[in-house]
Amino acid sequence: MTLHPTDHAGLEILPFADCLRLLDSVPVGRVGFFADGEIVILPVNYLADGQNVIFRTGAGSKLSSIGSRNLVGFEADDYDVGTHSGWSVVISGFTEVVESEEEIRRLNDLGLRAWARPEEEVPTWIRIRPTSVTGRRTPGSAFGG
Amino acid sequence: MTLHPTDHAGLEILPFADCLRLLDSVPVGRVGFFADGEIVILPVNYLADGQNVIFRTGAGSKLSSIGSRNLVGFEADDYDVGTHSGWSVVISGFTEVVESEEEIRRLNDLGLRAWARPEEEVPTWIRIRPTSVTGRRTPGSAFGG
């Protein structure tokens, strides 16, 4: 267990490398964006791809209208109710629809599968290019360590 | 297990009563809001209080500047990696800082404790008044049932 500096709330401030490692450790995150005058947060199956987050969206989803160069938030976390411990990684950034066929083939091969969507559907890949990545963890916890 | 109608992605559309019950079943949700030109999503310990969501925020937090009548999104979920099943409840709404002393006493007595914040700090209670509440669940799953 490494101890890091803490913020105003007593949460450990995680180094960037830890954030990337933790992002890679859970399959579900949440994307927040503006739609129809509301802030909408939706869970997505995602992958950490280098320093970016990628996820799939299908026709008919509110997320499918998000397009490129849109402001988004992203969050992933994990916690243990019994010990009141956990971590979160919070990203702000912009979306980018993946258009390169070579890149789409590469992403298709990474093994990310939607849990509900019919497999025959052709998904659109969205990449989040972060403008900030921050991570926090409950103090003195080995959780996510 | 009850089967509900499904959406474009094959996810079961949950009735409002199920959404409220599921909101009550997990201790951590995520609040999404605008701050400094970014969409920020932060995890919070919360309680479902009737048809509203309430959480605490302390001085120095990005959330503490949110105030009343601000547009927010809220999301809670739970999932099982092994069976690729899970549910989510998604709320859009507006914030309201709880100012009534009687109401603050009632909320203090509900037993919600921050996992990291020092207990001596006096928190501010924020209520989310929903304008929409929607729930989804992976199909054919007893998870969250």
Give the helices and strands, then pairings.
Two copies of one chain form a homodimer.
Chain A (H helix, E strand, L loop, with lengths): L11 E3 L1 H8 L4 E8 L2 E12 L2 E6 L13 E10 L4 E13 L3 H8 L15 E14 L8
Antiparallel strand pairs in A: 1-7, 2-3, 2-5, 3-4, 4-7, 5-6, 6-7
Radius of gyration of chain A: 16 Å
CATH architecture of chain A: Roll
Percent helix of chain A: 10-25%
CATH topology of chain A: Pnp Oxidase, Chain A
CATH C-level class of chain A is Mainly Beta
Number of domains of chain A: 1
Q: Uncertain regions of chain A: pLDDT < 50 for 5+ in a row?
A: none
Morphology of chain A: globular
For the biggest β-sheet of chain A, the strand order reads 2-3-4-7-6-5
Write the CATH homologous superfamily of chain A: Electron Transport, Fmn-binding Protein, Chain A
Distance between the termini of chain A: 6 Å
Mean of all residue-level pLDDT scores of chain A: 90
User: Sheet with the most strands of chain A?
Assistant: 6 strands, antiparallel, barrel
**What is the number of beta strands of chain A?**
7
For the largest interface in this structure, which chains are involved and how many residues does each contribute?
A-B, 46 and 46 residues
From the helix content, strand content and strand pairing of chain A, which structural class follows? mainly beta
Give the DSSP E fraction of chain A (strand runs of 2 or more residues): over 45%
Number of helices of chain A: 2
**How do the helices and strands follow one another from N- to C-terminus of chain A?**
EHEEEEEHE
